[in-house]
């Protein structure tokens, strides 16, 4: 059972998340095989003040 984790900023609608999960699942099945019901996807919404790149918090940009 593959587990795919997606981390992103909050703010997407439930429909955007549904579409993301469908697309990620379809891409996995298409490239790696298996059945869609065997693919697990988790979405973690990370606030900008908890995410950084290049030594700078996204909330400070």
Describe the structure in your own words:
With 61 residues, the chain is α+β, with helices and mostly antiparallel strands. 31% of the residues lie in helices and 26% in strands. The chain has 1 helix and 4 strands; from the N terminus they run βαβββ. Strand 1, helix 1 and strand 2 form a beta-alpha-beta unit. The longest helix is centred in the middle third of the chain and has 19 residues, at 14-32. The mean pLDDT is 97.
Widest sheet, order of strands: 1-2
The biggest beta sheet is recorded as: 2 strands, parallel
Instruction: Give the helix level as a range of percent.
Output: 25-40%
Poorly predicted sequence stretches spanning 5 or more consecutive residues: none
The number of domains is 1
Q: Please give the number of β-strands.
A: 4
Kindly identify the CATH topology: Macrophage Migration Inhibitory Factor
H and E string? EHEEE
Taken as a percent bin, the fraction of beta residues is 25-35%
At the first level of CATH, the class is: Alpha Beta
Global shape: elongated
Shape-level CATH architecture: 2-Layer Sandwich
Mean pLDDT: 97
Based on CA atoms alone, the radius of gyration comes out at: 14 Å
Summed up, the helix count is 1
The fourth-level CATH homologous superfamily is Macrophage Migration Inhibitory Factor
Distance between the termini: 38 Å
Structural class by helix and strand composition: alpha+beta
